[in-house]
Amino acid sequence: FRAVAHQSTFLLRRCIIGRSSRNTTNNYNNRKAMMISTSSSLSSSSFLSSSFLLKGRTSGSLFCNRMIRMPQHTKHIRLGNKNHKISTSTTAALGGGSSSSAGKTKQRYLCQDCGEDYSQWYGQCPGCKAWDSMKVFREPISNANGGSNKGKSGGGAGAAAAQRAQSNNTDRELKSSSSLIFKRNSNRKSTVNGGWVSDSNAPRALKEVLKPESKNSKNMRRVPLPGTLGSEIERVLGGGVVPGGLVLVGGDPGVGKSTILLQLAGLLGKEATETAKKVKKATKTSEESEAGEESMEEVEALFSGGGVLYASGEESVEQVASRAERMEINQDGVYLYSATRLENILDAVNRLEPSALVVDSIQTVFLEDATGSPGSVSQVRECATALLHAAKTSGMPVFIVGHVTKSGDIAGPRVLEHIVDVVLYLEGDADRAVRILRGHKNRYGSTDEVGVFQMADQGLVPVPSPSALFLGERIISDDVSAAPTVTLQGSRPFMLEVQALCNDRSSTYDDEEGNNSGGGMVAPAVRTAVGLKFERMQLLLAVLAKFVLGRRVQRNDIFVNVVGGLKLDDPSTDVAVAMAIASSFLERPLPSDMCFFGEVGLGGELRPVMQAERRIAEAATMGFKRVLMPFTGANEEAGRKQGMEIIKCNTLAEAVKVALGADPVGRKKQIPWKKR
Q1: Which residue from 165, 423, 397 is spatially nearest to 265, judged by alpha carbons?
Q2: What are phi and psi of 3, to 5 degrees?
Q3: Is the pTM of this model over 0.85?
Q4: In this model, does residue 58 exceed pLDDT 80?
């Protein structure tokens, strides 16, 4: 503040000294009044103490210290024969005053790996544990009392953009030529301060909303997807597509996110075209029965809109069209649009009134009112908010593509996953054709279901029998330590194969117990797990070393791999992992007609798993004759129905003895407590 006052005094002094000394008497009074009024405009809410130099009639200097109360109104001062108007805008030009608060910014720290932002700097990100990944960015502080935000809906730049796009279409009465997929909520309008929530939405009883004749109950119905591809996607979504839902699809680069959404756009466009033909044919019928009228009303309640809009910010329209032609995607009812400015995409939505919208991707689009470059924290948050408002206002489902970081999380702020209704991850390795579509968040269904696809020239092809795919290349050999197992992904059983390899490091140790009595340096054993959690493998190794194989297993390099690229989170595969490690360590093959499932406890006991009957039935379908499973929960009746032999075991040591014919290495006898 002192610097501002000093700068103002310096400027005034130069202005005064540079003037002519003619009419010194009048100049003296005029300059004095000018300095007082200009000083009054320096601040509207504080006191200013400064020294002003007044040039007098003589060559001497006169210093005057004043304490002046700053007025907030504009002053009109007569200087000589002219009227000068000095307002508080002078303060903003000089860098002081309350009006400069609109240009203030707050400093945040953004992790470049996971996208989390914090108010202070960390050497290691608390979210993803990455080192030296913090980057400084600044966000403007919105002026809550300013007039620029007056009339805008709540929610920031995203809500404002959605409201402008809707207001541009308020006076335009566009009626689609066909009734297609989703019912548009044309009566719902965004309010000034409420975002997409209407003021007319009064509290309603749940029973009233769920009535069959209620309009809202018809809008809540899902839209089915045709074909085998649609059935596989429906499995992950928990049913059909929900009107007004916001779906986020993430995955590694090149895994097929744009491919599966382009195929989904083709399915929705095909469904829209066929429904339009049905509705058009029904409207031409002159005489309809009452039952026909009721069915027509039901169709119109479910279907409304026009086609599917695929907006790409990464590819041109020609590039997307060539890819669609190569994959033989349905061309009817699909519109392509290349844009990175989200306002243009929302305007196109208002013009076309599509049944669904696909945005590829959220990191490439931007809003002009939001700060930062495309892909920044503020831009991703505001763009997602604008798409949320567009989806909830019109009842149009929106699918957006999200990039992932090297840790596998969606790039951008964590609030992005909270905004959307469904979060799907498309998993798969670049050197394998298998793709797994897994749900991580679903407000409309379960997240346990997965979809299995195979990448081909025509895009992603659903796999009807995942067990046959994962076990189709199984090699039965005495040199391969592999244990088949059955895992459940939601309501779907999969048969997998777990392989293990143990490499002995006996040359670096002195005795059979694995002790290094020579005192030399010994490199630690290597542990690698692909498709399995590393902590789970360490737990099973500790149980094997203590109760089954002894300490000698700890000096081996151990590698575990799940064939097919699927990631195992089901604890029922513990027995199969342990049996594969024991087979490689003992160099004894497992029976080729036996599969394993069960959970291993810390005491070496086998614990039962859920839905054992379905696992037995899947193993019988794949041609296995015997199943080793925990004693508790074993259903011999289900095994006899499937023609399977049920082998029941209580402990892991008993399972190793039955399958491999090896006696467990017992623990050393405990030393009895000395009698006092």
Answers
A1: 397
A2: -65, -40
A3: no
A4: no
